[in-house]
Specification:
2 copies of one chain form a homodimer.
Chain A lengths: L2 E4 L5 H10 L9 H14 L1 H12 L12 H8 L4 H19 L6 E4 L5 E8 L2 E5 L8 H14 L3 E5 L9 H10 L3 E3 L3 H10 L9 E3 L4 H10 L4 E2 L7 E6 L5 H12 L6 E6 L2 H17 L3 H11 L1 E4 L3 H11 L3 E5 L3 H5 L7 E4 L5 H6 L25 E8 L2 H17 L3 H14 L6
Helix pairs in contact in A: 2-3, 2-8, 2-9, 3-8, 5-6, 5-7, 6-7, 8-9, 10-11, 10-12, 16-17
């Protein structure tokens, strides 16, 4: 059974804080192993990658096999059914249409002092996307990572995807092709992250690495951060549903289970202003769990981390939701827009009972790579901006420098940075005829 | 003497790569110490902070003294000269005017399938700015960190600034007051980062931490990343000047020295299409170094990491600059706009001989917190966006769900995520009259 809480309970605050603080994920300390793997790939390049792939993915490859050939990609894509391909194409089209709107504007203006100021955005030159192998090898994640990169204008986009025992997922290859990925490598783990960051004989280094992965991948991303840019470190998935009694308990139940089925460490929470509705949802979850394919995973997540919280009113629900800062927030209430306006911290909001979170995982358009573990308090889902960087621009005229230069000189002196001041003073002296001209 | 290179040298590529790869900074391994400090502050709060402050800053304080009182701030600000205060106010005004333009737009639209999509931005609830103590305690950095946060709309903005031996920098307090900082704490080091991230009895935790610091501060920021957001880890400063022969060698010389004087690990590079001009700049640097206050620091930086590179033409200069991806790029050439358009990777560009980089350190308006160590390839200077996060919004109508839902269901099946598919199917069945209504 999930945790049942009510804001009218005398010990509610204590129990709520305990729920928030629950440690859902054991991060095994793999840092030393990962450091060794990275050092090995830096020192020995392809040879190290090949050895580590033999060890971890039980697959002997040659340097020529590290990268999927066009023929291999073609052959694998041919195994994808027309229906699956069509669904991927619809998804790609909608994801692209959403992300195109994120392309930022350049600006340039001249201010009253005569200084021309602005900025411009440019794409990173090369990005690498990590795609997990095995069970969690999701073609939708390929679309969600690759499309923003291509919309940003990244000219070179590489994917690494391990193929344990040599088994590749044709849908992943198809998604990569639809998204316009330029290079696909059949490697994974910390060795793939190291190869992307530092390069090998076969793999040119990239500037930015994104994508989810296991503890080894996450530790490797942390280690190469600085050498390259990385996206956030993803934790287990979360959904928070705020629902009033005018909902079908079964809809809410499957929505809760749609995140619980990802991972035993996932967390699904219902907040409702109607205790009886909460009970009905709990019953509906139990019923669905009887037959769900992934009931072992979903059932454990629901029992360990699931929660049903009864509140006095929806304002209270919005406040509690902000304390969770959930990755996914579903608002199944009469006026979801009004409730949404009261929420500040959430990765993605799904408005109304006809917007199940899963629609956002695949096809709505917004990115499904979202901040977990309360990090929506300070970070955002993946976007086009993650594959771009901004260069600021400053252009002074002699007049502008004469106007604002003295204040800069004064501050340089206050900070005891003499050469800073001199670099302004040298120009001001010229303008004042102090030196020559 | 700096390194002299020319693209016509037979071994140029080799020497250029060596120059790029030079390790300028020894990062002492302070990770274990920092881990202990953080654990101590988490466990013992104010008591730990007070003990560590006594140890590292040689200053015995009480819990009441951790935060600067209004009276103390008032008294310290009264020590600032009217001229310094006026210069800070001019700088603050210009920095604010620039950053206001970075406030991002919210968007919301309905697409042809009837799905309403969009996003909205919101500020983090609380931010903490680290300000170094001692020599590198720069009021300009307070403005550059605090103003974007306040422009973003951060309601609670805290500063930590160590005051070794009890000595506070009045200009730092004044800058904080001008920028609208809400709380100022007289602590520093890893203990300050831990207190901001986890909170103590006196200091409420924040969601985002920015600002430069020494190796302990940098290691602590890396460790608390995930619990809170952090900005980039700043490395030693860099300037790259591209200048043709129609420049005053002395101007370029002081510009190069304005970064060299920051730090023995700073790097100043001139790229010119005229070898004689390069020699003249080298001579001018030597002359300035004879009298410069910080000549010990600047001279060592220039000798160890300084470089003058002669190129065949300015196109070659732009290419080499992109390989440096410099923090600061000055374009002292006849048509700086045309040359700027050929550059892709730079933190900030300063256009024309009347735009010394130092004007950007203080007063031009763009942020002076910029990517170092080649990270301009994938990251940007500090901005209003660093203190905001984006929530994506999705709202389906029954019609929209009926249109795009089946593709989502198909992809869920392809990924073996049954509950994902069921959450869509449950709604589709209702719409099709398959279950009830």
């Amino acid at each position: 059974m999930p945790h049942f809480l009510s804001t009218t309970d005398r010990n509610f605050e204590e129990r709520f804080v305990a729920l928030l603080a629950m440690k859902r994920e054991d991060s095994p300390d793999v840092d030393d192993t990962v450091a060794r793997i990275i050092a090995d790939v830096r020192a020995r390049g392809d040879d190290a990658v090949i050895e580590l792939t033999a060890k971890f993915d039980r697959m002997q490859i040659t340097p020529q096999m590290i990268r999927f050939s066009d023929t291999e990609i073609e052959d694998l894509c041919a195994q994808v059914s027309a229906e699956d391909r069509a669904a991927l194409e619809v998804a790609a089209e909608r994801i692209r249409a959403y992300h195109v709107r994120q392309i930022p504007d350049d600006q340039m203006w001249t201010d009253p002092d005569g200084a021309t100021l602005g900025w411009r955005w440019s794409a990173v030159s090369a990005a690498g996307l990590y795609v997990p192998g095995g069970l969690a090898s999701y073609p939708s994640s390929v679309l969600m990572n690759a499309i923003p990169a291509k919309v940003a204008g990244v000219p070179r986009l590489a994917i690494t995807v391990p193929t344990p025992d040599g088994i590749a997922n044709p849908l992943v290859l198809m998604a990569a092709r639809i998204a316009g990925v330029d290079e696909i490598y059949r490697i994974g783990g910390a060795q793939a992250i190291a190869a992307l960051a530092y390069g090998t004989e076969t793999i040119a280094p990239v500037d930015k690495i994104t994508g989810p992965g296991n503890a080894f991948v996450a530790a490797a991303k942390r280690r190469v951060f600085g050498k390259v840019g990385i996206d956030m470190i993803a934790g287990p998935s979360e959904i928070l549903v705020i629902a009033d009694k005018h909902n079908d308990p079964d809809w809410v139940a499957v929505d809760l289970l749609s995140q619980a089925e990802h991972d035993e460490s996932a967390q699904s929470v219902l907040i409702t202003d109607d205790a009886a509705f909460g009970e009905a949802v709990a019953a509906a979850v139990s019923k669905r769990l009887e037959t769900l394919e992934r009931r072992a995973i979903a059932g454990k997540s629901w029992a360990d981390f699931g929660a049903i919280i009864t509140v006095r009113d929806l304002d209270e629900a919005a406040d509690l939701s902000d304390r969770f800062a959930p990755e996914h927030l579903e608002l199944c209430v009469e006026d979801p827009d009004a409730l949404s306006a009261k929420v500040t911290h959430a990765g993605a909001i799904f408005l109304g009972a006809y917007t199940p979170e899963a629609i956002g995982d695949y096809i709505a358009g917004p990115n499904h790579v979202l901040p977990t573990a309360r990090s929506a308090r300070f970070s955002s889902g993946l976007s086009v901006l993650d594959f771009m960087k901004r260069t600021t621009l400053t252009k002074m005229t002699p007049h502008a420098l004469a106007t604002i230069g003295p204040a800069a000189e004064r501050l340089a002196q206050a900070e005891s940075l003499e050469a800073h001041g001199l670099s302004v003073r040298a120009r001001l002296d010229r303008l004042n005829g102090g030196i020559d001209e």
